[in-house]
Amino acid sequence: MIIDTSKTIAYKCSSCGAFQFINISLFEMSSKKESSFTCRCNGSSLVIAREGLNDYRIVIPCIGCGTDHIYLFGRKELVSGEIHVLNCPKTGMQQCFIGNDEDVREKLDSLEKEFDELIDTLGYDNYFVNTQVMFDSLNIIHDIAEKGNLFCECGNNDIELLLLSDKIYLRCKKCPACKIIYASTNEHLKNNLQTKHILLVDDGQSLDIKTNESIVKKRDGK
Ligand SMILES: [Zn+2]
Ligand SMILES: [Zn+2]
Ligand SMILES: [Zn+2]
Predict the structure, then answer these.
(1) How many C-beta neighbours within 10 Å does residue 135 have?
(2) pLDDT digits over 130-151, tens only?
(3) What's the CA gap between 81 and 109, in Å, rounded?
(4) Could you tell me which of 154, 134, 157 has the C-alpha nearest to residue 144?
(5) Alpha-carbon distance 103 to 108, whole Å?
(6) Where does the source fall among the domains of life (predicted)?
(7) Which pLDDT tens digit goes with each residue over 27-82?
(8) 166: which residues sit within 8 A by CB, 6+ positions away?
(9) If you measure from the C-alpha of residue 91 to the centroid of ligand 3, how many angstroms do you get, rounded to a whole number?
């Protein structure tokens, strides 16, 4: 019988927002007091430290709330075939997956698939100032809407969503109210993650955006 003791960790870098893969064997984890893994952007690191004989402490800087989160694992938990999904306790954002390589990649693939579908819908991937932040922000708005927390001051909840390169423009289909959600920097993403309700108000600043200009549909034939 062969027991695979290596684990794959995928964590969302707090600096660039991309998932970074780490492959580590339990043997490696127990032989070192502390291992640190830095994202290829050099902006953040995940640290795994041994705690006593059988426990591990994983410290991950969080893109969602800006603090470090500490997760404790027993060796048994890590060896088990389960996949562990670590969520930011403040914003609920999925920030890390730990498990067998196949399972972790599958999780990430399904996240990426959604991402690719968005890119496909829009035609090309350099439309947005920051595609990752735009994608995450769209998901946040989607979650807020699903919980029934996206509505207009007029009582309507039939909201139109337009994507611009650096922001998401929400407008009421029944009145002039609107709301702009910025989505081009990690700072914006942090703000959006903290948003629980979106209320559209008519402050007389409604942008004159034509749908066909903001949602670009173009393929460059490749
Ligand atoms: Zn990074
Ligand atoms: Zn957090
Ligand atoms: Zn309205």
Answers:
(1) 21
(2) 888 888 899 899 889 988 999 9
(3) 19
(4) 157
(5) 9
(6) Bacteria
(7) 788 788 999 999 998 999 999 999 988 899 999 999 888 899 999 999 888 888 88
(8) 128, 129, 130, 182, 183, 184
(9) 28
Please name which ligand lies nearest the alpha carbon of 91: 2
The phi, psi pair for 215, rounded to 5°, reads -100, 100
Residue in the structure block whose two tokens are 């735009």: 134
DSSP for 33-75?
Answer: SEEEEE-TTSS-EEEEEEETTTEEEEEEE-TTTSSEEEEEEEH
| Number of alpha carbons in the 13 Å side-chain half-sphere of residue 155 | 0
> Which residues are near ligand 3, the ion (C-beta closer than 5 Å)?
152, 154, 156, 172, 174-175, 177
| DSSP secondary structure of 176-204 | S-EEEEE-SSHHHHHHHHH---EEEB--S
